[in-house]
Amino acid sequence: QMPSVPMLGGPESRALGQSLADFTAVFYKDLDSLEREHARLEAVLDSMTDGVVIVDSDDTVSLVNRAAGELLDVTPRLEGSVSLANALRDIDLVELIQESANRDRSASRLFTIDATNREVHGVVVPLGRPDDRQRLVLLRDLTKLRQAENIRRDFVANVSHELRTPVTVLRAMVETLEAGAADDPQIRADFLRRIVVETDRLGQIITELLDLARIESGMADLALEKVDLNVVVGPAAERLRPQATRNEIQLEIVRSSQVLLVEADTDRVGRVVMSLVHNAIKFTPPAGTISVMIERMDRDAVVRVVDTGEGLNRSERDRVFERFYKTDASRSSSGSGLGLAIARHTVRQHGGRIWVESPGRGQGSTFAMALPLHEAHDGAERP
């Protein structure tokens, strides 16, 4: 609050008092403006996604914004001075700042922050006069970008591999037939059957790639309707009972006693269920069991596909829904590696979630998806 200036004495004193009052008013107005600007600057620095650090001429740090604090795993600070090593605690970053001390131009480097294992692009820019060693440090987190680049690189490599295999097999069989094998009716029939199988595999990969591209781009519209999830899941799982029987696997389908009303595209959700059950059949040995359980969990309708099969370790659980990812146990299988990726995107389109649980290798897996119950759901018992 601005203090009042008393107007006492003669004209000269009152004039001096008025001048002092005017000066005080201007001073407090400027101070208030500076405080607002300071608060605005703090808000901007705090909301920035890039890390900002200011290093003073004496190699002390006077500012570390919130993003820089999270990247470096240090306490953010907007005032006061702390030595470089104590404030930043990262050798590579400290070296970059010290190396740039006597330069009149910016310096940059890519490095990994040891404390948080984040890949960072650091830029050091001189501040103030040429003879001043004050520096501005900008830190950009490239971890997600690098991860996206690796996923894209893996995707291209996997597409090439998955398409090359059937094409190579087809070419080899056609060349064998051209070399004279076509004259033998038995060999010809066998090769033609295998050609059809490989052609179907190519068609499946291409269809799934197109489906995935349409879903990811948001062009795959859903034909939503209010439906009991029991009515969708049960028949979809039953369609794979013959395959489970051929593999000597017991398939159990446990429906909920309640009507679980959801808003879903029945065809798409049915395909997700078939994908999860088919995946379980593929990795469950003979005499094993697969249980498909439908139940309510809070405000979600949940489907769990529990198997007694191969199981997954930690790294496999983290990656199993990636496009073309295959576990070590499935390297030799004929699947495209796209089924679970399509399932994940389909469930997300419905506003749901999908996940996997497994104690570890050889201890079975549980794939689960949860869809939000419709607002009209009343928890009535199934007839």
Can you walk me through this structure?
The protein is an alpha+beta fold. It is built from eleven helices and 13 strands. It has helices at 11-47, 66-72, 84-88, 91-99, 143-178, 185-216, 229-238, 241-246, 266-282, 314-319, 339-349, and strands at residues 51-55, 60-64, 82-83, 107-113, 118-126, 135-141, 225-228, 250-254, 261-264, 289-297, 300-307, 353-357, 365-372. The strands form three sheets. It has a six-stranded antiparallel beta sheet. A hairpin with a 4-residue loop joins strand 1 and strand 2. The radius of gyration is 33 Å and the shape is elongated.
What is the CA-atom radius of gyration, in angstroms? 33 Å
User: Order of SSEs, N→C?
Assistant: HEEHEHHEEEHHEHHEEHEEHHEE
Shape: elongated
Strand content: 15-25%
Tally of extended strands? Answer: 13
Main-sheet strand order equals 3-2-1-6-5-4
Roughly how much helix do the residues carry, as a percent range?
A: 40-55%
Q: Could you report the average pLDDT, rounded to the nearest whole number?
A: 82
